[in-house]
Design brief:
Elements (H helix, E strand, L loop, with lengths): L8 E3 H8 L3 H9 L5 E4 L3 E5 H10 L4 H5 L2
Antiparallel strand pairs: 1-3, 2-3
Helix pairs in contact: 1-2
GO molecular function: DNA binding
Protein name: DNA binding domain-containing protein, excisionase family
Organism: Syntrophus gentianae
């Protein structure tokens, strides 16, 4: 029996909108291995929803570290 897929895949543009950043930055995150993506056709990429959620969870900063004088 095949394993059921429990992940969704979303466009680079949608991820950029969600993170309030540029598509170029999203491509950099993919290139750096911080986001997982799959290739659709010749050029289109889709980002794993689970990967995006993991990225967000680990990208949180401690305000004291970030804003310390």
């Amino acid at each position: 029996m095949k394993e059921m897929v429990t992940d969704r895949f979303i466009s680079v543009q949608a991820v950029a909108d969600m993170l309030s950043c540029t598509e170029h930055h999203v491509y950099d995150l993919i290139r750096d291995g911080r986001l997982q993506a799959i290739k659709i056709g010749q050029r289109a990429l889709r980002i794993s929803w689970n990967s995006l959620q993991d990225f967000i969870a680990t990208a949180h900063v401690d305000p004291e570290d970030y804003l310390a004088p």
